[in-house]
Amino acid sequence: MLDILKAVLFGIVEGITEWLPISSTGHMILVEEFVKMNVSEEFWNLFLVVIQLGAIMAVVLLFWKKIWPFGKKKKSGKFYIKTDIIMLWLKIVVACVPAAIVGVLFDDKLDELFYHPWCVAIALIVFGIAFIIIENRNKHMTPRITKLKDISFQTAALIGVFQLIAAIFPGTSRSGATIVGALLIGVSRTVAAEFTFFLAIPVMFGASLLKIMKFGLAFTGTELVLLVVGMVVAFLVSMLVIRFLMGYIRKHDFKVFGWYRIVLGATVLLYFALK
């Protein structure tokens, strides 16, 4: 029962931090220091990735009309394909390629090299500073890309390069890296956030599938319950957080998240230095 409550806590943390550009990894490392589930290390590594499926289902549900490429005419009942959404998915695939290649080839090695508090804390601080600098630079600039359809394949590829940084350095924050990259090349905040959400769909499904394939399907009953609880909680919390973020960035910039990252990164460094 205690582990189920812990799974609820981790689901809440995942649902909040996956979509806000503040690094779910940084928060999970801190929470794990004080709250540990009674599971094997292999299952724990799987749990951290697979509960993201709950978070991603929130994106699928909230943005279904923007990502589902098939429609049905009301009068004739005939199905048709929405070419603009097909083009959007092609751009998402282009943006996913760099991180997908690195993830498949070097997933375990990257975790071994960079998945520790010092790297995570530095990434938190560096990208926190980047948010503040870019937002200050963009303060009096008009974004050149204000609609999803205006994102070109070249722009998608550039955003994909920033996502690659997040794939290499835990603590960067996947959403944080892609949003910073998008803002830097002239994408509006709203479009940057939406494209980041959509980009997460294949990335998270792919990462979860990779972890499950490595772990196998030999879950115990308890492990299965923990996974389901974590995913459901992450889904419910993500629904609220995504709605909040989309409303927030229509009137505010990302600097508050930059300052938060800096404070969190400094906290992580201080905690592990004194530990």
What does this structure look like?
This protein is mainly α. The protein has one domain (2-274). 76% of the residues lie in helices and 2% in strands. It is built from 12 helices and 2 strands; from the N terminus they run αααααββααααααα. It has a two-stranded antiparallel sheet. A hairpin with a 6-residue loop joins strand 1 (70-72) and strand 2 (79-81). Helix 3 (41-50) runs antiparallel to helix 10. The two termini are 30 Å apart.
Count of separate DSSP helical elements: 12
Rg (CA only)? 19 Å
- The share of residues in helices is over 70%
Find the count of extended strands (DSSP E, 2+ residues). Answer: 2
> What is the string of SSEs from the N terminus onward?
HHHHHEEHHHHHHH
User: End-to-end span in angstroms?
Assistant: 30 Å
* Assembly status: single chain
Query: What is the global morphology?
Result: globular
Mean pLDDT level: 88
Give the domain tally: 1
Strand % is: under 5%
Report the biggest beta sheet as strand number plus sense, adding barrel if it closes.
Answer: 2 strands, antiparallel
Q: What structural class results from the helix and strand content?
A: mainly alpha
Give, in spatial order, the strands making up the sheet with the most strands. Answer: 1-2
Segments where pLDDT lies below 50 for 5+ residues?
none
Quick take:
The chain is mostly helical and 275 residues long. Helix content is 76%, strand content 2%.
